[in-house]
Amino acid sequence: MYPRDFFDTYWRTDLRDEVFVAMPFHDEFAQVWEMAVRPAIEDDSGTGLRARRVDASILAGSIITDILDGIAHSRLILADISVASEGRWKGQRNGNVMYEVGLAHAVRQSTEILLIRSDDEAVNFDIAQINVHRYPLHDLDRTRVQLSQLVVDVLRQIHQEKSLKVQRAVDILDADTIRYLADYAVHGPFAGPDPKTMGETLVAISNRAALARLQQLGIIRANIGIVKGQTAFVLTAFGAAVATCIGIKGAAQPGAPVDAPQAARP
């Protein structure tokens, strides 16, 4: 699948508890994966994240989709751009890994991408200004400790930046959007009657406007088909953080249906 088609069609704001790992599948990198990268993420970091690695040696069919899905929906992308000493990419940085790095830089925040390498060779011009962390290839115990701390530090930085974004979103919420979240973010799909009075109609119009603003801010997204005959909405992970920030207790989990009141019907 062409990357632009995937990101336009399938990308969602909700992220999985994974670290997408882009690294060569040649034998020389097998121990780095098994003895350092995977245990650093899954066993040592204390984050509860799973390391996910896709064999990028076959850039076709579902493999491409798996790569795009991992780049779009993992909490963190870790890429080993080390120069290969064997195989097809001997003396070079693996082209498939660099392709994945390029995709990640195009669609994710810079703080969500962690680059590592084991060599001292010059780095490609396109990423020369990006911090690339060097690890000791011949001391994988130390590499494991180093990578675990890097993952923790990067996730902390991501959390700090997202906290600022949540606060900025809260700062621009108006009374109607706050009321809408407070009234509906804790319930399941709405199945009530259409508005019949002028007062109910005015409330419905206000709800429509609030829905539109919340969608524009990325706090909720439409999910067609949850409730027959009407459009339901789900809180995004960002939306759940906003709801918590403004003190809404019992807000639905990300992806769980948010009420679609009369005003939200098609």
Question: Would you kindly provide a written description of the structure presented here, covering whatever features stand out?
Answer:
By secondary structure, this protein is α/β, with parallel strands linked by helices. The chain has two domains: 3-163, Rossmann fold (3-Layer(aba) Sandwich), CATH 3.40.50.360; 172-264, Arc Repressor Mutant, subunit A, CATH 1.10.10. It has eight helices and eight strands. The protein has helices at residues 3-9, 30-44, 61-73, 95-107, 140-171, 175-184, 198-216, 237-245, and strands at 16-22, 50-53, 74-80, 113-117, 132-134, 220-227, 230-235, 257-258. The strands form two sheets. A five-stranded parallel sheet has the order 2-1-3-4-5, with helices on both faces. Strand 6 and strand 7 form a beta hairpin. The chain is elongated, with a radius of gyration of 22 Å. The two termini are 32 Å apart.
